[in-house]
Amino acid sequence: MRRIGIFGGSFNPIHNGHIALAQAVLRQCALNEVWLMVSPQNPLKQDATDLLDDHLRLEMAQKALEGVEGVKASDYEFHLPKPSYTWNTLQHLSKDYPDCQFSLLIGGDNWAHFQQWRNWQDIQAHYDIIVYPRDSYPGTIDVPLLDVSSTEIRRKVRAGDNIERLVPDSIINDIKENYR
Questions:
Q1: Mean pLDDT (the chain, rounded)
Q2: pLDDT digits 0-9 by tens, 78-112
Q3: Through-space distance between the first and last CA atoms of the chain, rounded to whole angstroms
Q4: Would you state the pLDDT for residue 142?
């Protein structure tokens, strides 16, 4: 049975912290792959006004992950009812990929509020949950914590600041064009 880590998020935009985290979890948790699940609408972030088009975020994520072994961007949630509830995604994935065992990657900040998630008890009962440290929230695995966020990248682009080393070189121009 293949072991797949599901790393959901807006990836608005994807950055080097996302990629480094996915690679570290892939190695440490003996997963076959990590799928970055580009979310079309996060139920907990429905007020976001600076969310780039779904397909543009997906394209940038795919481009950023070219050559990154074992990590891929997925549009799977684009085809599910909105808003995108993790429980719903995991249920559909389990049905569509019966040969895979799915683990959920979430940040310590989300873990602290996990009981607010739809059907959280079912997720906890049926899926491995890998919690990575975020901000001042601890995790269940020890991974490098890169001090970079999508919000900060968007702010830097609007201010005309340098974003090199925060995002893969392959998408710097795309980010500047789409987030200015």
A1: 93
A2: 999 888 899 999 999 999 999 999 999 999 999 99
A3: 44
A4: 86
Q: Are residues 175 and 13 in contact, defined by beta-carbon separation less than 8 angstroms?
A: yes
- What percentage of the chain carries pLDDT values higher than 90? 81
**Which of 84, 82, 83 shows the shortest CA–CA distance to 8?**
84
Q: Which two tokens stand for residue 128?
A: 């491995």
What does the alpha-carbon distance between residue 180 and residue 97 come to, in Å, rounded to a whole number? 39
The three-state (H, E, C) secondary structure of 3-47, written as one string: EEEEEEECCCCCCHHHHHHHHHHHHHCCCCEEEEEECCCCHHHCC
Measured distance CA(79)–CA(55) in Å, rounded: 12
Q: Do residues 129 and 103 make contact, with C-beta atoms less than 8 angstroms apart?
A: yes
DSSP state letters, the chain:
-EEEEEEEE--TT--HHHHHHHHHHHHHTT-SEEEEEE-S--GGGTT-S-PPPHHHHHHHHHHHTTT-TTEEEE-GGGGS-SS--HHHHHHHHHHH-TTEEEEEEEEHHHHTTGGGSTTHHHHHHHSEEEEE-BTTB--SS--------HHHHHHHHHHT---BTTB-GGGHHHHHHHH-
- Number of Cβ within 10 Å of residue 45's Cβ equals 13
